[in-house]
Amino acid sequence: MKKLTSLLISCSLALAGAAFAQQPVEQQSPSKGKRAPEKAHAPQPQPKPNAAKPEAPAPTHHGAPKEHPPANQPGAMKEHGATHEHGATNQAGAEHGQKAPEKHEAATSPKPNVSGQAAGAQTPTARQQRVEERRKAKGGAAAGKTSTNPAAPNAAAAGAAAGQQNVQANAGAKAKRPAPEQVQQIKSQHANFRAQPKPQQVPAVTYNQNYRIQGAEHWQGPQYEVFRSYHPEWHDQGWYHSHYNRVELIGGGYYYWNNGYWYPAWGYSPSAQYYAYDGPIYVGHSAEPPDKVIADVQGVLQQMGYYKGEVDGLLGPLTREALTAYQTDNGLTTTAAIDQPTLDSLGMG
Q1: For residue 198, how many other CB atoms are within 10 A of its CB?
Q2: Residues 6 or more apart in contact with residue 26 via CB below 8 angstroms
Q3: Long-range contacts (CB closer than 8 Å, 24 or more residues apart) made by 295-301
Q4: Per-residue pLDDT averaged across 165-171, rounded?
Q5: HSE (CB half, 13 Å, CA atoms) of 303?
Q6: What share of the chain has pLDDT > 90, as a percent?
Q7: Strand pairing category for 247-250 and 281-282
Q8: What pLDDT, on a 0 to 100 scale, did the predictor assign at position 168?
Q9: For residue range 264-289, what is the model confidence (pLDDT) as tens digits?
Q10: Rounded to an integer, what distance in angstroms lies between the CA atom of residue 88 and that of residue 122?
């Protein structure tokens, strides 16, 4: 009987121990009512560790820190986890509930950052690229204008000065002066030279009381005054002899002498009015006949390669062309005539 009682007690204790051992297992089993608190923490917009990251924003490709939207703005989590140039990648471990705000960001106008690009945009749209290209093009054009326009007057002045120096340098390089012995030799050859009229080779000019030497009004200096003021006058022999002490028939026409120049004496003799040139001819105060001085000039210019015609003592078109070329090369006023500066330059003044 005692053995039976002990056996029952032992069985009761064993059952009680087994029941007690099973109780913690039932408490560890998940229950449907205990998952509600866990779901309450799931929709939080961002973890706490990420909330402190706005202090160190990721740099953009322009080197300026990216501007962050407020913590409660959609897309804030994306900016903190951005590694692409435009801040486009999602943070590792981001919750699935944040995929919906990405679509919202693409549909709305995101806040631009300091570099002019949209924060949180994954790739620039075609329109954004065109806008950016136009902005850069305008910026480049403006920079070009600001860099060139202020210097334009200085550049123009420098170009004009350089051009003037080049003209002077070219004139100096082309300048040709006859040797004094060469001039003396030619003058000795023409000591008894007398010109003859050649209307077939050198046509004569006609009288025109309104004639003025073309361009003479622009010739500056007292040595060109006689050319600026010259106009033909028609007078008879008595008038010329009463005004000038020297009137001569030279190369088919009468000329009068006045203060270093020979002038056509229009009207002195209607039968002898052959003039190849209507204007003053400078010969200097030696008062040599104009045809002899013209022949000397033709001979010197011929040896220098300017004059290709015959030495005839007539101031015709070929002689005037040679004078123009010589005057241009030596920086003289291009009068196409025998004037004081030209004769002095040739060593005949």
Answers
A1: 18
A2: none
A3: 295/190, 295/193, 295/195, 296/183, 296/186, 296/187, 296/190, 296/348, 297/323, 297/338, 297/343, 297/346, 297/348, 298/322, 299/186, 299/189, 299/190, 300/178, 300/182, 300/183, 300/186, 300/346, 300/348, 301/326
A4: 46
A5: 14
A6: 47
A7: unpaired
A8: 46
A9: 999 999 999 999 999 999 999 889 99
A10: 4
Q: What is the pLDDT of residues 38-55, one digit of tens each?
A: 444 444 555 444 444 444
The single-letter code of the amino acid at 206 is T
Q: Which structure tokens are listed for 32? A: 């449907």
**pLDDT digits over 303-312, tens only?**
999 999 999 9
Measured between alpha carbons, how far is 296 from 98 in angstroms, rounded to an integer? 107
- Which of 31-45, 120-134, 138-152 has the highest average model confidence (pLDDT)? 120-134
Q: Which of 342, 58, 14 has the alpha carbon at shortest distance from 178?
A: 342
Half-sphere exposure at residue 80, Cβ-oriented, CA atoms within 13 angstroms:
23
Amino acid, res. 279: G
Residues 273, 339: Cα–Cα separation, whole Å: 22
pTM of the model: 0.53
Say if residue 37 is exposed, middle or buried (CB neighbours under 10 Å; 0-12, 13-18, 19+). exposed
149 CB-near residues (< 8 Å, 6+ apart): none
**Cβ proximity of 318 and 203 under 8 Å:** no
Q: Averaged over 182-204, what is the pLDDT?
A: 94
Burial of 80 (0-12, 13-18, 19+ CB in 10 A): buried
Would you say how long the chain is, in residues? 349
Exposure b/e, 8-20, CB count within 10 A at least 16 = b: eeeeeeeeeeeee
Give helix 290-303 / helix 317-329 axis angle, nearest 10°.
60
- Both ends of the chain: CA-CA distance in Å? 175
Q: Which residue has the tokens 């009682």?
A: 5
Of the candidates 260, 258, 279, 265, the residue with the CA atom closest to the CA atom of residue 214: 279
Please name every residue paired with 247 in a beta bridge, in sequence order, or none if there are none. 256
- Of the pLDDT bands very low, low, confident and very high (cuts 50, 70, 90), residue 135 is low
| Separation between Cα atoms, residue 212 and residue 89, nearest integer Å | 89
